[in-house]
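Reviewer comment 2.1 asked that we show a complete input and output for one of the modelled complexes. We chose the zinc ion case, as it is the one discussed in the main text.
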Amino acid sequence: MTVTWATYEADYFDYSGPMVPGAVVLDHEIAPRSGWSAVVSAGTVLTLVDVGGNQSGDCLIYAAADTTERYSVPDTLVAQRNAYLVEGSVLMSNEGRPLMTIVGNEVERQDTIGGACSKESNTLRYGHHTRFHHACRENFLLEGARHGLGARDLVSNINWFMNVPVEADGTLGIVDGMSAPGKRVALRAERDVLVVISNCPQVNNPCNDFNPTPLRVIVTDPSASVSETDRR
Ligand SMILES: [Zn+2]
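Response of the prediction step:
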């Protein structure tokens, strides 16, 4: 039998569904290598689905009302007293205020130390021939431009579904992932937040299994009634 892309996708991809029930207010497939952004309203829950497994979703979060307040890795890690993000972790801003809370997580641990790929880091790590590879930084710039953000607004980020172990001597690894098709993380917005996601285009290390695949983003409103069609 000839295995076509369509049959491969049907067997391999798992688009899953929202982790927290509620009316679906947004449902979008982020194509491989591309970016996505939207304002997520306070009280709603964003579920991110790792459709193909081990696909890094690089993520930045800003207060929608004032984007100079934005996600802060040091504030978040100090507040959690944990080098990883797990269920219950509160994603803190540079003003020390909660932006979102992880209310569901199907991966052992989530990374926020490894950073985002860029053509600059690619050429340093993998050689000058990678200079023309599209990278997360380009996705962040393209999506950010839709909201008045520029290069100076790009800060350290979260890498959903990327496995970056912190070794005993403090070094970081970027190693084979622990995620799988259909695995999810769910984030409740503690205020109106602008969420920017780069579906990582990296093909020079194992963060995407050398095979960029889609991500699915679903936003549900738990306070709104759920229709039968939403229950699928
Ligand atoms: Zn990347």
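The chain has a mean pLDDT of 91. We note this here for comparison with the apo prediction described in Section 3.2.
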